[in-house]
Specification:
Strand order of the largest sheet: 1-2
Distance between the termini: 24 Å
Helix content: 40-55%
Radius of gyration: 21 Å
């Protein structure tokens, strides 16, 4: 399988849309261009999988339309929701202010 490398401008756009706070250096563009290209190659492989015999998650082949989905309802107790949110922030291992920091410096870094 040849490694697909994304166009640097596409990488910059994806980084911006993903809110990745990084200066798009040449090293950044090459690294993430390769990693994102690899992801896209795997997605392309999924198109080849025969799923004709797989039942849908609901156990039927009927298509559900947006009109059939339940309406979103706001959480009724906003004070409790604020306490839950603050509890998650307080107990997260790494944070900067109210931002939760995930481990690793790249998409696939450990």
């Amino acid at each position: 399988m040849s490694q697909k490398i994304l166009d640097p401008q596409i990488v910059v756009n994806i980084a911006w849309l993903s809110r990745i706070n990084a200066k798009p250096s040449l090293e950044f563009l090459e690294k993430f261009g390769k990693e994102l290209g690899t992801v896209l190659e795997y997605v392309e492989q999924l198109k080849e999988v025969d799923i004709s015999s797989v039942d849908s998650l609901l156990g039927s082949s009927r298509i559900i339309t947006i009109d059939e989905l339940a309406e979103d309802e706001p959480y009724p107790d906003q004070e409790e929701m604020a306490r839950i949110r603050q509890n998650i922030i307080d107990n997260f291992p790494q944070k900067q202010g109210n931002l939760l920091v995930l481990p690793g410096s790249g998409i696939f870094d450990n």
